[in-house]
Amino acid sequence: MKKTAPLIRNMKASGEKVVCVTAYDLPTGLAAERAGVDLVLVGDSLGNVVLGLDSTLPVTLEDMARHTAAVRRAVRTPMLVSDMPFGTYEGDPSAALASAVTLMRAGAEGIKLEGVHEAAIRTIARAGIPVMGHLGFTPQHVHEFGGHRVQGREDGARVVEEALRLASLGVFAIVLELIPATLAEEVTRQVACPTIGIGAGPGCDGQIQVFHDLVGLADKQYRHARRYAECGEAFQRALEGYRDDVKQGGFPTEDHGF
Ligand code: KIV
Question: Which domain holds residue 87?
């Protein structure tokens, strides 16, 4: 069954966990589609895992639109959400709406933005665009946080209050990134919409992970992630085999010719 924002919101009541993963292009989108996940996020982690950048800050709206369109060609059943990149929603709400419209025209079925930007969220939601929230460690604020640090250890009440504000604005789900598991449980108890954790413990209503972390394509092994495959090593071995075959005359053979 096609996953939509209302359907994902209702998964909280049914108690079924919401499975979310990022994707950035046709092959990663196809893997997510075929695995039967509930939601695919074209994350601005694109900057880190695909474009080789140090942070998500340089990622542009054009980058997000191009990669959203590529993932759209693969993803049919899961809901497809696209990240609003840094600098495209924090100011004028009508500019935020224009950014969201660009992503929807590229094929997104909803957008995600970091923090509580009430006027922008109201304006985007009024246009009929489902909004996903994102609290805790919000990567576009990495410089403010002074690095990749767990949030909400001392000021958990602020995270709860922000989540309640987001829920009252009608977001269909909230990503909770790098916060203590007990705080994530508290937020999950208090808000009406599903919480989607990444480094926020098992008590959330769902989980999201970065594709490259799950399949072993990322250089680092993060505490909040589990590797289900070693695709980086498999790619390496495949290319080494190809190199050796070409060097030694083992490829191509007559079978590969015309
Ligand atoms: O950009 C991204 O990949 C994200 C997830 C980590 C939630 O925002």
Answer: 5-227
